[in-house]
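Bumping my old thread because nobody answered last time. Still need a sequence for this structure:
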């Protein structure tokens, strides 16, 4: 009868990779030396603390022990793919997690291509992580990095990185963010969530210019309204960003945007009137090459309508426009104590510019409520374009799906 020693190691490793979680993998590796060798020599690990049994008294120590053995005692040619997840890790996290990342980024021990870290510990990212020449895909969820990433000139050298996702992260200054972007020449996807990329005291602008970039997502992020901000990368297909951070200070804000498709996330339910005044009054937008504009969650007050109208007036190549209004806005606005103090959008923004949207072929608005600012946007679009009111090109529907496109309310505005 064949023994475990007769089974090729790569077959055993394939079996280990099919196990549902780290708990089963650790238990299986204890059955024999051969299985332990298979477990300790794999290229791919997904170590998630949530799969460790709840009856263990010290979850942190159990998780840390497993990661220690894999990272520091690995017996194979090197780890290529590593996922670490423990959102409540708070024991000795600063030193220990930093040591894990430092070891994983070392070419002497591993050949890391993909790293996914979601650790709830105060975390210092080691310098070696941002000089890992084999890394292709990096996701860092840093729950407790209040100090911010400090990346000096020359500190970043990620020549093969193509996908970068940072969550709950911050940067010491806009210069450090610029150094990160410039150190990733082949970057194709940049996805930031709840990340501050600049601070109020910053004076240096940001320019995302890598020719390899295809998709840029700023989800719930801040800071880019503090400094002059440009996306000049020539091949960006889509830029997703938060409208509330378009402008924050006098000389800040989005100044250039080369993306073909833009998705504007109106991600604050209520923008206080003083803040809205800053955004609308300070927007200085040059002509952009936007062909597709998607506005999500618009609260059709004067401030948000003003932001959208600025973009429309600056997008002569626009071909497709989609606006989805926030469903809750009628109720919330009705109880907002400041509703009468929202800033008046400059009147010139509502004035049609005949021929300005001559390339527009489709315009659809969803969750229409009859708000006057919604109607003003519709009026501007129809009078500045050659679009006709037919179902293939134009549509205005409420949240129940009722079509308002040819109603007197719309037609009377023209």
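Sorry it took so long. Here it is:
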């Amino acid at each position: 009868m064949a023994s475990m020693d007769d089974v090729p190691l790569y077959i055993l490793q394939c079996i280990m990779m099919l196990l549902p979680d780290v708990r089963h993998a650790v238990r299986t590796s204890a059955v024999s030396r051969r299985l332990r060798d298979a477990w300790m020599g794999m290229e791919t690990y997904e170590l998630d603390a949530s799969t460790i049994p709840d009856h263990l008294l010290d979850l942190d120590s159990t998780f840390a022990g497993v990661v220690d053995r894999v990272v520091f005692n690995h017996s194979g040619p090197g780890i290529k793919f590593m996922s670490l997840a423990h959102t409540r890790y708070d024991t000795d996290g600063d030193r220990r997690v930093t040591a894990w990342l430092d070891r994983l980024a070392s070419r002497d021990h591993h050949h890391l291509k993909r790293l996914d870290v979601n650790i709830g510990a105060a975390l210092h990212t080691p310098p070696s992580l941002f000089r890992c020449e084999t890394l292709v895909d990096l996701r860092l969820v840093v729950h407790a990095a209040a100090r911010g990433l400090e990346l000096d000139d020359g500190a970043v050298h990620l020549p093969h990185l193509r996908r970068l996702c940072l969550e709950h992260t911050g940067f010491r200054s806009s210069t450090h963010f610029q150094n990160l972007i410039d150190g990733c020449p082949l970057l194709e996807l940049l996805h930031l969530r709840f990340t501050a990329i600049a601070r109020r005291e910053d004076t240096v602008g940001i320019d995302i210019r890598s020719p390899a970039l295809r998709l840029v997502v700023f989800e719930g992020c801040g800071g880019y309204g503090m400094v002059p901000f440009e996306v000049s990368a020539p091949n960006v297909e889509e830029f997703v960003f938060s409208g509330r951070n378009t402008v924050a200070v006098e000389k800040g804000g989005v100044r250039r945007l080369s993306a073909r498709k833009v998705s504007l996330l109106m991600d604050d339910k209520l923008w206080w009137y003083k803040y809205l005044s800053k955004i609308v009054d300070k927007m200085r937008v040059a002509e952009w090459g936007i062909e597709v504009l998607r506005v999500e969650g618009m609260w059709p007050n004067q401030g948000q309508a003003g932001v959208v109208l600025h973009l429309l007036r600056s997008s002569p190549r626009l071909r497709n426009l989609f606006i989805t209004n926030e469903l809750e806005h009628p109720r919330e606005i009705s109880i907002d104590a400041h509703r009468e103090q929202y800033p008046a959008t400059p009147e010139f923004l509502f004035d049609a510019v005949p021929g300005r949207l001559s390339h527009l072929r489709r315009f659809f608005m969803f969750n229409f409520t009859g708000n006057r600012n919604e109607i003003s946007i519709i009026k501007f679009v129809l009078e500045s374009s050659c679009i006709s009111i037919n179902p293939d090109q134009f549509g205005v529907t409420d949240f129940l799906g009722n079509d308002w496109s040819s109603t007197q309310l719309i037609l009377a505005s023209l």
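Residues 59-72 form the longest helix (14 residues). Let me know if any region looks off to you.
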